[in-house]
Amino acid sequence: MAPAADAVADALVVFGITGDLARKMTLPALYRLARRKELYCRVIGVGRSAWTDEQLRERARTAVDEAGLDVDDAAMDDFLGRLSYVSGDTREPDTLERLRTELDQARTIVHYLALPPSMFSETVMRLADADLVSRARVVIEKPFGTDLETAIALDRELDRVLDEEQIFRIDHFLGKEPVQDILYLRFANEIFEPVWNRHHIESVQINMFEDFGVDDRGSFYDGVGALRDVVQNHLLQVLALVAMEPPPSGHGAVADHRTDVFRAMPSADPGVYVRGQYRGYRDVKGVAEDSTMETFAALQLTVENWRWHGVPFLIRTGKSLSTTATDVTVRFKTPPPLWWQSDTPEEVPQHNHLTIRIGKGAGASIGVLVKKPGEPTTERVHLDLSFERQLGELPAPYERLLFDAMRGRHQLFPRQDAVEETWRIVQPLLDTAHQPMAYEPGTDGPSEADRLARAHGGWRRPVPHRPSMRHG
Known about the structure:
Elements: E1 11-15, H1 20-35, E2 42-47, H2 53-66, H3 73-81, E3 83-87, H4 93-102, E4 109-113, H5 120-129, E5 136-141, H6 148-159, E6 167-170, H7 177-187, E7 201-209, H8 218-221, H9 225-243, H10 253-263, E8 273-278, E9 296-301, E10 313-318, E11 325-332, E12 353-357, E13 363-371, E14 378-386, H11 387-391, H12 397-405, H13 416-431, E15 437-439, H14 450-453, E16 469-471
Parallel strand pairs: 1-2, 1-4, 2-3, 4-5, 5-6, 7-10, 8-15
Antiparallel strand pairs: 7-11, 8-9, 9-10, 11-12, 12-13, 13-14, 14-16
Helix pairs in contact: 1-2, 1-3, 1-12, 6-13, 9-10, 9-13, 10-13
């Protein structure tokens, strides 16, 4: 019997706790929860390394230090006191039997699979054979398949032993506070919602730039690429929050409306898609010397419903680009000419925009037009807001997502129907992949991508956080 939807977990099992994901993300996130007095359960790590409980605790201390977090001694003691470790291979019955003993008194369990995707199905099946899923939720990391067919196959495997309500698919972008702020900026501010439609918006751009390359992830990345790594999941989920209708109250309402956006989107057109690969990528360890995997992707999508008909959604992402920044820019239509100080109309050369910064320096920028001093023309002024400066330290994505999983809250986790729709949208691009266009590291990607945005004012280059107000 699956745990009650609102039951708070009294045990969190982290498979793969000895790996990089746990060191960089999971353990620091759990410490931050303990520091906020919101970690209520035991944390049991499972891994193949022959560690002791104390070795896991030492790894946790190191992970917190490496994350640069301020250490509260009482919070650290509480966190470390909750940790224990089960050593062994989950393919061995003895390992799962010892885990069963550790979980004997637990009523609601969360199994978090910080494992390679190829191990999801097998691990879940072995947990089911050991009678360890009936009172559990199971958290899995992206990617959820590598295309539409494999995503459906993975779901069928999980459905053999789990209900959909037991499955929590982590997309850490949905755990970012600035991503969640998209809905609040839209629907809690009456100045935005009346103009949030095709009558007033000319285009929407979503940019995710990274100024670093693949580095030591060559063997992983060369089997994935930019489209699978961030477009099908992260950036389409962001698009859905920009485009969705206001959700009513009730369980699953936000997820329903995100999925409605995907269902309204035609599959991507390969004719408005540009693939790129930075020079030097093929020299990275683990990358095939003749690799055609893309490290850059730019595409145009549409949402064919009443609100968005005719509005292009432009997405651009890549490695080894000119900066590291992620943002969404909603570009409003240019107003008609002004007649105010002459007998001839004065064209308005620019447009208003709203930019939401999702990455470092999270915040929002509104571009407004004011009269240029001494001249009958306009000048753009940016009004900038820093979320951290105004609102304090933001919860980290894994902190929020693990907190929600332990409480059975599904809102920030993609459902299977949404996963299948997003794979459907990008599948034509996967099926017609062609030779990527080369670009130099430190640039904005291949110049061929410029044609996708030329008719819509060109690409807006994402920039790091700026001062609170400036001209330009």
